[in-house]
């Protein structure tokens, strides 16, 4: 996703601290509310949405903080021990420590545990350098928080919504959505990142990838479209080799797929038959013939298939 697209989405239009306050306070109000406190008074929360910080990006931020200081206040909330818990601005906080800043600007707000976690997640989702795995995990956490359940139940709900939508397409009858489904749709619409359907199809499968693939995805070293292809290799050594090559040589998706063919075992006839049946089922479910552009492309492919079938 380009920086421009990410800036255009609804949550990002609010600007980071406007989001965190949950209203439309002017930027001048935010600056007026900022206080300077000792950095030693700030503590990190027990649960943090962010796991990985790009080393090069952090070096650049540290240098910027050394030269210009912290330009945007951190958001914190009071603790019972007269210290403050960080809610939003972890990169700036870590950069300030590395730059040996003794004091730091903050905005102090009274927030519940749920409010603090939700704001932290939203700020995390607004980052322009967010990788697909972090984004996927963050969205699931936000949905779980908003629907007062756990991530496992959210995943189950999303798959149920997908199955219900497919049945609705087949029957051509509209089904009244339940309150949970409506809230899911509203959250995805407000985030402006993708539809819930796209999330289920393209993002949820990421969390089932092998751990070595997930690790480089979290680090932003490879595109998730490439990672999904490499993950098809079941052998850990072969997968590791292709993964390292794809990163070091910046292989294209086509090059990765080509190299993968040489490493994958021969497919038995039953597997081939199942693939054909799955493809036909997907074509029927998506009703591709109703989309003229897609149908024009598909018609050419069908002509080639028909040509192959009549050959002796």
Q: Using the alpha-carbon principal axes, give the shape.
A: globular
The largest β sheet comes out as: 5 strands, mixed
| DSSP E strands, number | 5
Structural class: alpha/beta
The percent of residues in helical segments reads 55-70%
User: Topology as H/E string?
Assistant: HHHHEEHEEHEHHHHHHHHHHH
**Roughly what fraction of the amino acids lie in strands?**
5-15%
The overall number of domains is 4
The end-to-end distance, rounded to whole angstroms, is 47 Å
- Per CATH, the architecture of the largest domain is Alpha-Beta Complex
Give the SSE map.
Layout: H1 3-8, H2 10-13, H3 16-21, H4 27-33, E1 35-38, E2 42-43, H5 55-68, E3 74-78, E4 84-88, H6 90-98, E5 103-108, H7 113-125, H8 132-146, H9 151-171, H10 179-191, H11 196-203, H12 211-218, H13 224-230, H14 236-248, H15 253-263, H16 269-286, H17 292-310
Parallel strand pairs: 2-4, 3-5
Antiparallel strand pairs: 1-5, 3-4
Question: Key terms for this structure?
Answer:
5-stranded mixed β-sheet; Conserved hypothetical protein from pyrococcus furiosus pfu- 392566-001, ParB domain; 62% helix; 4 domains; disordered N terminus; 17 helices
